[in-house]
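Narrative of accomplishments. A recurring question from our advisory board has been how the design workflow behaves on a single, concrete structure rather than in aggregate. To address it, we present the structure tokens for one chain from the evaluation set, followed by the sequence designed for it. No filtering or post-editing was applied between the two.
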């Protein structure tokens, strides 16, 4: 990677000195680590399927505050709508509803200003995108749900990129649920057709008996790069349930690291990625079972059209002594064209002997018999394809417990199919 890029990012980190209380030392540590390693290459096993030539060959400027970005309507009834534009929290255009009566929501800067020692809560991360996010973060949100508080409606965090050509947003969110608390967070990512980079990190801590639903709808602009990391720890009897739907951007990568730290901790992590021509969607999950009697389940479905690419790397680690662990992982990919590409790398790393762990990965084409069945009943080939793809991806949406969010995601998948899969009636009829 060119030294100019490293030096540019070092200068950006230096310019942020003093902007977030207590963070300077962590920034220095992170930018030193990044300067030493840079962005990975295809020789790095975790990045072998991600084409990040643009990140390796270009230094992105810091995205600037924009006040004229349009804010779309909510997809469902929400407890609050929190607006992030070009990586900056826009309090005036956010709607807190009655949320502040129940939980604490504040910008990252305010959180650290109240107690600079809280900077120690922030993790540098291992991947280059997370490391650079630590060095260059400017804003984000801190959501703390007190013990026993249950928020019924979703909290929407909408990330908007507007007029950010060759610029990047580095956003860090902290989420903490006290004992027995419950919350649903919906992150939406949208943007215009400028060539920007959205790089977000979510750190979450789910205490004993708490439940966090974390849903992501990635619909960034066609020239965007989208990278995201989620680092989650789950306590006894706690539950982390996530679903990531990736439809936008030219390159999208979602990396979830979940640690089940105490007996009875649970995690379900699902995802859908649809890749059109020249799109690349990568999803990586590592669930670390640290203690006995913990459970995890993963369901991922990807679809790739002509010249599109998807990849899934899922790892389950069961520590020595983590007996009676239950872990399952299912990945299926659907190729709509012979030039489409799908990659899978499921892994089990088990150091205990009384466990039930499994994984499976399949890659295939549309079922010709199912297509024939639908067409024989008067359904045109394009509609038949859409129906089969929707049914195929629905497995990964089945655990979303908010019907409105699930329906909105299904509608986005349907819209993607209508926009990207051409009418091939002549070919299919033949």
């Amino acid at each position: 990677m060119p030294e100019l890029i490293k030096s540019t990012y070092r200068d950006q980190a230096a310019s942020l000195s003093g902007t977030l209380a207590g963070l300077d030392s962590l920034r220095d540590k992170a930018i030193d680590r990044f300067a030493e390693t840079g962005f990975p290459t295809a020789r790095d096993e975790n990045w072998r399927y991600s084409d990040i030539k643009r990140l390796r060959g270009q230094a992105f400027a810091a995205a600037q505050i924009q006040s004229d970005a349009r804010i779309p309507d909510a997809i469902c009834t929400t407890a609050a709508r929190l607006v992030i534009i070009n990586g900056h929290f826009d309090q005036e255009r956010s709607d807190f509803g009655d949320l502040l009566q129940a939980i604490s929501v504040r910008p990252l800067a305010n959180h650290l200003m109240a107690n600079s020692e809280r900077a120690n809560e922030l993790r540098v991360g291992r991947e280059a995108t997370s490391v650079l996010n630590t060095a260059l973060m400017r804003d984000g949100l801190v959501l703390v749900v007190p013990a026993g508080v249950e928020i019924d409606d979703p909290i929407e965090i909408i990330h908007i990129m507007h007029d950010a050509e060759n610029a990047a947003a580095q956003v860090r969110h902290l989420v903490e649920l006290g004992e027995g608390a419950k919350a649903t967070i919906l992150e939406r990512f949208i943007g215009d057709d400028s060539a920007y980079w959205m790089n977000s990190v979510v750190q979450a801590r789910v205490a004993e008996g708490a439940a966090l639903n974390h849903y992501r709808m990635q619909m960034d602009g066609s020239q965007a790069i989208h990278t995201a990391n989620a680092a989650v720890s789950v306590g006894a009897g706690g539950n982390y349930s996530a679903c990531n739907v990736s439809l936008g951007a030219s390159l999208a990568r979602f990396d979830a690291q979940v640690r089940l730290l105490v007996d009875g901790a649970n995690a379900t992590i699902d995802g859908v990625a649809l890749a059109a021509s020249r799109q690349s969607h990568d999803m990586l999950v590592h669930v670390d079972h640290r203690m006995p009697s913990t459970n995890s389940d993963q369901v991922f479905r990807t679809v790739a059209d002509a010249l599109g690419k998807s990849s899934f790397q899922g790892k389950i680690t069961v520590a020595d002594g983590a007996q009676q662990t239950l872990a399952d992982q299912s990945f299926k990919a659907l190729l709509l064209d012979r030039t489409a590409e799908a990659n899978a790398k499921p892994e089990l790393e088990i150091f205990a002997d009384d466990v039930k762990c499994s994984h499976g990965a399949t890659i295939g084409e549309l079922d010709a018999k199912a297509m024939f069945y639908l067409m024989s009943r008067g359904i045109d080939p394009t509609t038949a394809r859409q129906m089969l793809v929707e049914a195929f991806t629905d497995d990964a949406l089945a655990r979303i417990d908010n019907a409105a969010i699930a329906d909105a995601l299904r509608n986005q998948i349907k819209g993607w199919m209508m926009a990207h899969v051409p009418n091939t009636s002549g070919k299919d009829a033949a």
